[in-house]
Write a structure and sequence with these properties.
This protein folds into 3 domains: 69 residues, no CATH class; 305 residues, Aldolase class I (TIM Barrel, Alpha-Beta Barrel); 62 residues, no CATH class. Helices cover 47% and strands 9% of the residues. An 8-stranded parallel β-barrel has the order 1-2-3-4-5-6-7-8, surrounded by 6 helices. Helix 2 packs across helix 12 and helix 5 crosses helix 13. The termini are far apart. The structure holds iron/sulfur cluster (2 copies). The site of one iron/sulfur cluster has 10 residues, from loops.
Length: 473
């Protein structure tokens, strides 16, 4: 079977022979200064690189050129995303699961972990706790269990979440990370008003994938790998891909991830909206030492930089799995979204868990409050943003991508970041954060190039002081 990015079949668009040939090519050219310098120069136009070209950059052992690569990643990040960093939180609905993923404590053989599925009332309380922190954007997470967590439960939970307006709070975008499902179920999720459908591939290496998922529906590599195609057929045009670094040969997965993006672009005209890059973490009965392919911090930074160069318009997400220091190291290299003050436990927001109640999917390495995270971003000159405007304005899929590719999206991102930061400062921030935030808003407001947008933003900011909310561009 030959490599074909347009094929609907996983074994053709994630072709093992093509990945191996790409890695061999990258190894053969890792010191090829002319080629590497040429790729860096060409990528300056923000049009991205192919998986093979990106693999060469990732393999490059030319330190001075690698430095140039990092500088380019920073320039692309600044050019397309500016200083804004979008914040979100995961919300775990249920950890019942029929799969046996060997890296996740929710695997079905784990008899001692506390199993929990939130009722609609409990979801309400979780969402109020999240709104009281200032969150506006959630990523829903559930284990796969058709009896305990059927699609109707997920849909009902989404309706519940959107219906809650506590004080000035609101969840305005619900992204969904649930198991691979049918076109019909994706259609229903779309109708329920989800933002992005997120599904991590974990690894693209089929034999490893099958070993890591020995039982349950997730064992089916093709069904899982083709899930984004079904999501798009069901009308969801913002999909989020990701691999779990530390499970397999990271270079193999890096190439697979880019081939997946190329496939979605070739078949549906729009690549992934986001890419997540979780690294494996300890949890309950999971010891990361059992996975031999741990990705160190330097390699992780290089992966982020090359991805930024290869797919400039795809948002990059990093979670609280990563420490403050490791998040800091990759923010300017390309990350555009981070989670903050996350609980990875079912029901973890409403009350602090007693240790014996812990049901965390993984250990969080960054356990600061949302206010601390916002203040930290401000202190580094970033613009914390709770923006959800694009999805609410119908700017999704290829509509979003065409605005992103012409650079027009920047005219929305900055003013929307200002609006949502101002809401946060008015309703949730501590004194220090508020002071720093107001200074940044004044400064960035003056930097909005379009006079009409600038004046509208100024008026909206003024109206917010007297209690109005939810302005957007
Ligand atoms: Fe279940 Fe997901 Fe954990 Fe696998 S990774 S055991 S599917 S919750
Ligand atoms: Fe994201 Fe659109 Fe808001 Fe920019 S304007 S931060 S792209 S939702």
């Amino acid at each position: 079977m030959a490599y074909d990015p347009k094929s609907p079949h996983a074994e053709n668009f994630i072709d093992d022979a093509e990945i191996r040939a790409t890695l061999a090519y990258a190894d053969a050219h890792k010191s090829d200064r002319e080629l590497i310098a040429g790729l860096i120069a060409r990528a300056e136009d923000c049009k991205g690189l192919t998986h093979r070209e990106a693999a060469v950059l990732l393999a490059s052992d030319q330190e001075d050129l690698n430095e140039k690569m990092y500088e380019l990643a920073k320039r692309i990040k600044e050019e397309i995303y500016g200083k804004r960093i979008v914040l979100f939180a995961p919300l775990y609905l249920s950890n019942y699961c029929v799969n046996s993923c060997v890296y996740c404590p929710y695997h079905r053989e784990n008899a001692h972990i506390r199993r929990k599925k939130l009722t609609q009332d409990e979801i309400r309380r979780e969402v109020i706790a999240l709104q009281d922190m200032g969150h506006k954007r959630l990523a829903l997470e559930t284990g796969e269990d058709p009896a305990m967590n059927p699609i109707d439960y997920v849909l009902e939970s989404i309706r519940t979440i959107y219906s809650i307006h506590h004080k000035n709070g609101a969840i305005r975008r619900v992204n969904v990370n649930i198991a691979a499902t049918t076109v019909e179920n994706y259609r229903r999720l779309k109708e329920a008003g989800i933002g992005t459908y997120i599904l991590f591939q974990e690894t693209y290496h089929k034999p490893s994938y099958e070993k890591l998922h020995p039982k349950g529906p997730k064992h089916d590599y093709a069904y899982h790998t083709e899930a984004m195609d079904r999501a798009m057929e069901g009308g969801i045009d913002d999909v989020g891909c990701g691999v779990l670094f530390g499970l397999n040969l990271y270079r193999y997965d890096f190439v697979g991830l880019l081939m997946h993006a190329e496939h979605l672009e070739a078949r549906f005209g729009v690549g992934p909206h986001t890419i997540s890059m979780p690294r494996i973490r300890p949890a309950d009965d999971i010891d990361p030492a059992q996975f031999s392919d741990a990705v160190d911090d330097a390699t992780f930074a290089k992966i982020v930089a090359v991805l930024r160069i290869a797919v400039p318009y795809t948002g990059m997400i990093i979670s609280t799995r990563e420490s403050k220091a490791s998040r800091e190291a990759v923010l300017d290299l390309g990350v555009s979204q981070i989670s903050g003050a996350s609980s990875t436990s079912v029901g973890g927001y409403e009350k602090k868990e007693r240790p014996e109640d812990d049901s965390s999917q993984f250990a969080v390495d960054d356990d600061r409050t949302l206010d601390e995270v916002v203040e930290w971003l401000l202190s580094m000159g970033y613009m914390p943003s709770f923006c959800t405007a694009c999805y609410r304005a119908g700017r999704t899929g290829d509509r979003f991508m065409s605005l992103a590719k012409t650079g027009e999206i920047k005219n929305c991102c900055l003013p929307n970041a200002l609006m949502t930061l101002k809401e946060y400062l008015e309703d949730y921030a501590g004194e220090k954060t508020k002071k720093e935030g107001e200074v940044l808003i004044e400064k960035e407001l003056a930097a909005i190039p379009n006079e009409r947008v600038r004046e509208t933003a100024r008026r909206y900011l003024y109206e917010m002081q007297s209690g109005k909310r939810d302005f957007r561009f």
